[in-house]
Amino acid sequence: MAKITLDNLAHSYLPNPKDEDDFALKELNHVWTDGEAYALLGSSGCGKSTLLNLISGLLHPSQGRILFDDKDVTEATTAARNIAQVFQFPVVYDTMTVRDNLAFPLRNRGEKAAYVAERVQKIARMIGMEDELNRRARGLTADAKQKISLGRGMVREDVNALLFDEPLTVIDPHMKWELRTQLKSLHHEFGHTMIYVTHDQTEALTFADKVVVMYDGRVVQIGTPQELFERPEHTFVGYFIGSPGMNVIPAEVSGAQAVIDGTALSLNRDFGTLTGNVALGVRPEFVSLTKGDGLPVKVRRVEDVGRHKIVRADLFGREISIVAAEGQEISADMNHVTFAPDHVNVYVDDWRKEGVAA
Predict the structure, then answer these.
(1) For the chain, how many helices (H) and strands (E)?
(2) Under 8 Å CB-to-CB from 337, ≥6 apart: which residues?
(3) 83-109 residues labelled b (16+ CB within 10 A) or e (exposed)
(4) What is the pLDDT of residue 146?
(5) CA distance 186 to 255
(6) Weakly modelled stretches of the chain, pLDDT under 50
(7) pLDDT tens-digit profile of 298-310?
(8) What residue numbers bound the domain in which 69 lies?
């Protein structure tokens, strides 16, 4: 297990990067706590796998350092960093049995046979392959092979970190849920530092202690699921986390008042006078339909998704989403909305502003 420090870290796939746009991973300065589980979350091409491969040693950074427990490992090989990595597509030895595949990392380090057998049995139980231990990997399905690959990454107890690069892509949905649960249990039992790359917010939010949201090569926010939901530091976080995503509404803000298309709205914090691309961010869960109070809207459609309803409405020509309770009646005279004051975020050029108590 290790504390991981990213010091002035950045990477470009170009030999001579000239400006920030040439970097696939923009400059990072972060310290990740020993023993925590992190999920790197973002859309395709945002830099998640690049960052993971820099930490593992598969890539050498264009600038900066990587430290494990304050020891500089930037020039160290993957083996010397003592990490285990599981990739998106299964990497198994087809000529070996499932048992030998799982045992390989332990035998390669000279572990005693009794310990190897015990660990292999435990991991096989965890990935649901106890009955397959004596089968050769050749001929197994893609999801079975990925379970072997996942198990081989988890079989060692002495690693500094466990790195997972979208490891459940080829796994069927029910098994995904089971394996996520097992990974969480493994983390609680052994306290490994875990880093898990995914583009799936459900995977990230259910697996991680802290979610690292990435956008355009940057880390835009690191936080707990609750922090990401309630206080998105960037509009991308608000859009990417939650379903439906956060409503982003252009506004003018001065002091403790916002003006949306000529209509004033009181805020519970003072933001001074803001310039630039100013907007309010409000989660659909904190928007309420009313029969006259608030801002005027026109309801376009209501989507009943079982546990609640999603109302799509026009607010001054812009579509917003509203989450209503499953049993709530949506009547024709409900043509205004109000926002929960404590859950209105203010953004300038996509970044959240804190403001002071009004």
Answers:
(1) 9, 25
(2) 287, 288, 289, 290, 294, 295, 297, 313, 315, 320, 322
(3) bbbbbbebebeeebbbbbbbbbbbeee
(4) 83
(5) 49
(6) none
(7) 999 999 988 899 9
(8) 4-235
* Residue 287, beta-bridge partner list: 339
For residue 113, is it within any domain? Answer: yes
Indicate whether 229 and 255 sit together in one domain.
no
Q: Is the peptide bond before 341 cis (omega within 30 degrees of 0)?
A: no
Query: Is 242 within a domain?
Result: no
Q: Do 160 and 82 form a contact (C-beta atoms < 8 A)?
A: yes
Do the beta carbons of residue 203 and residue 194 sit within 8 Å? no
Residue 241 is assigned to a structural domain of this protein = no
Tell me the pLDDT tens digit for each residue of 256-289: 999 999 999 999 999 998 999 999 999 999 999 9
**Residue 142 identity (one-letter amino acid):** A
Is 301:312 a contact under the CB 8 Å cutoff?
Answer: yes
The pTM for the full model equals 0.86
Instruction: Give the pLDDT confidence score for residue 1 in this predicted structure.
Output: 65
